[in-house]
Design brief:
Layout (H helix, E strand, L loop, with lengths): L2 H8 L3 H9 L5 H19 L2 E4 L1 H16 L14 E5 L26 H8 L3 E6 L33 H8 L5 E6 L5 H7 L2 E4 L19 E6 L2 H11 L9 H5 L9 E5 L9 H16 L3 E5 L4 H22 L12 H10 L4 H25 L3 E2 L22 H12 L5 E4 L1 E2 L6 E2 L4 H8 L11 H8 L21 H16 L2 H17 L19 H12 L6 H15 L1
Parallel strand pairs: 2-3, 2-4, 7-8, 7-9
Antiparallel strand pairs: 1-3, 4-6, 5-6, 5-10, 11-12
Helix pairs in contact: 3-4, 6-7, 8-16, 11-12, 11-13, 11-14, 19-20
């Protein structure tokens, strides 16, 4: 095929490829060879795959070709038949190395497939290989110390997000047509947003996690990534665990029932506390498109937002450490972990039983109150802002610095604890390669607006009724959290907080300080300095110490000294 045709085909949708197959204009073997060729040519720069399986992929492609194109066999398994996809490397694959991005499992070859892999094979999918990831799915950068960091295909100096970073990067680069990832605290949604693709975290229990190496069993999910909302829906169709009598997604899409309009909730608090102008503009544009399509918008207050992140952390920390202890790896093989994962596993040893149980109780309370809030407001879904992809160089994220984890995972974790399906879609930013994840993202708005509203794509009911997976009459949509670390002041601030902040202020107040410093920097017209750290609302009971700390800090930040001093004075007057 000519190069231009190859490139167009590599970025075609699953639906388009499926039509070409059935018109006998393309064969699964031809397409699989194209994908393998592109992986060989491009992936050395991206590092999106840990293991490529050309022999397996070609054997599966030949089988699909025989079933689809042979008049004698004539077996059509559905829209994924003959479609080349990838799997995150923490999902068991029979006879294929499954490392979970770790040194510990570097030679592990499962003797059976995960349940989700069996479903994909039954659907006729072609498995190209296993994608790179953050070690043991325990981070959001995909900077892997054992297999090398994954690079964002839009800008190789930037992170792809994590932990399913290899999956998102491979899709964005045209090295597969979809991928199956895992998500505990944003691990599908963050890389989808940062790489300009679409990712879905389903409701807990709707997709099997059997034979998937866990992070936090109570919060782990398996879900699809692809380049369009429609393709994500096709992947979801193949891997869903269904209850008896539950119709397929395609059956719902063909339903003659008149679709009703959606009401989208815009949160009043937390999600938009500190958002970069570029992200906010993209979000507003996405919302305007949805309004034009007939969606109704309504402001909504959500309960317990400030408490849920810490509860989610306590649950995940404790469960992750427990799993690694039960497996016999931690602490006996502590030297085999990367620095960041080793530190997080150590955190889990400090979570007491009472703290863990309290976090579980808060989670149940939040789930109940969240659904009540949506019921009272008459809201079907919640839309929130996105985040930007940082670089390995510069102020956003240095190669050896994984401090961004809490920032990128903040909003995903808030939504995770409520146990609702969440979709994320990224949009491409400016010429420098900044990836701006909008409310629905360029991909979702341009190619899949029907996932919330009725339009000409013919997939509105499919997306509205099932991609968001109605649960107790409600759904939630979020794009995660906008993150940009301040140049200079953020590192100094965190150094001081780590050194003495715990003696001065409780953790929630440290978060509040960062948030208020961000507001002051924006007031000074220095949005480039703003650390996008959506802290909890500070209960500044110890105002004297807070003011003293800020006063010492702003001496070295002359650009924002005036606004911060004014803010500090206002706080002192308020609490005097």
């Amino acid at each position: 095929m000519p190069p231009t045709i190859d490139a167009d085909l590599a970025f075609a949708s699953i639906e388009e490829v499926a039509r070409l197959y059935r018109k006998r204009k393309l064969s699964p073997v031809e397409l699989t060879r194209l994908m393998l060729s592109r992986i060989a040519q491009l992936d050395p720069k991206l590092n999106s795959y840990i293991t490529v399986t050309p022999e397996l992929a070609l054997a599966q492609a030949k089988k699909a070709e025989t079933e689809l194109l042979s008049r004698k066999a004539n077996r059509d398994r559905g829209p994924l038949h003959g479609i080349p996809i990838s799997l995150k490397d923490n999902i068991y694959t029979e006879g294929v190395r499954t490392t979970a991005g770790s040194r510990i499992l570097g030679k592990f070859i499962p003797q059976h497939d995960a349940a989700v892999v069996l479903k994909l094979k039954d659907a006729g999918a072609v498995i190209l290989g296993k994608t790179n990831m953050h070690e043991f799915a325990y981070g959001v950068t995909s900077n892997n110390p054992h297999y090398g960091r994954v690079h964002n295909p839009w800008d190789l100096s930037r992170i792809p997000g994590g932990s399913s970073g290899g999956s998102a990067a491979a899709i964005a680069a045209g090295l597969c047509y979809g991928s199956i990832g895992t998500d505990t605290g944003g691990s599908i949604r963050i890389p989808a947003a940062l790489c300009g693709v679409v990712g879905l975290k389903p409701t807990l229990g709707r997709v099997s996690v059997e034979a998937v190496i866990p992070l936090s069993p109570r919060l782990d999910c398996v879900g699809p990534l692809a380049r369009t909302v429609d393709d994500v829906a096709l992947l979801l169709e193949a891997i869903l665990d269904r209850v008896k009598g539950e119709p397929s997604l395609r059956a719902l899409d063909k339903s003659s029932a008149k679709p009703r309009k959606f009401t989208i909730g815009i949160p009043k608090e937390f999600f938009f506390d500190v958002v970069s102008p570029e992200i906010l503009a993209a979000f507003d544009e996405a919302i305007r498109v949805l309004k034009k399509q007939g969606a109704r918008l309504k402001e909504i207050s959500l309960p317990l937002l400030n408490e849920t992140e810490d509860a989610g952390n306590q649950i995940a920390w404790a469960e992750a450490t427990h799993y690694h202890q039960q497996a016999g790896w931690f602490p006996s093989r502590v030297a085999d972990y990367g620095d960041d994962v080793r530190s997080r596993l150590a955190l889990g040893t400090k979570v007491s039983a009472t703290v863990y149980l309290s976090a579980l109780e808060l989670r149940e309370k939040f789930i109940e109150q969240f659904h009540v809030a949506l019921e009272d407001a008459g809201v079907d879904a919640v839309a929130a802002s996105g985040f930007e992809a940082g670089g390995h160089r510069g102020s956003f994220l240095r190669p050896a610095d994984d401090s961004l984890t809490g920032t990128l995972s903040l909003v995903p974790q808030v939504v995770d604890i409520v146990d609702v399906p969440v979709i994320a879609a990224g949009g491409i930013g400016d010429a420098r390669g900044v990836i701006a994840a909008m409310a629905l993202g360029a991909e979702a708005v341009q190619l899949g607006t029907a996932f919330l509203t009725c339009d000409e794509s013919g997939a509105s009911r499919l997306h509205r009724k099932t991609l968001l997976e109605k649960k107790a009459g409600h759904t939630a949509l979020t794009k995660g959290f906008t993150g940009r670390l301040a140049r200079g002041i953020r590192n100094r601030l965190m150094e001081d907080l780590n050194a003495k902040g715990s003696e001065i202020l409780p953790y929630p107040l440290q978060r509040g300080l960062i948030r208020n410093l961000s507001i002051a920097a924006e007031a000074a017209g220095r949005a480039d300095l703003v650390p996008m750290w959506a802290g909890q609302s500070a209960n500044l009971s110890n105002c004297t110490d807070v003011s003293a700390f800020l006063s010492s800090l702003v001496e070295e930040v002359s650009e924002i000294a005036g606004p911060v001093a004014e803010w500090s004075a206002r706080r002192r007057r308020k609490h005097s």
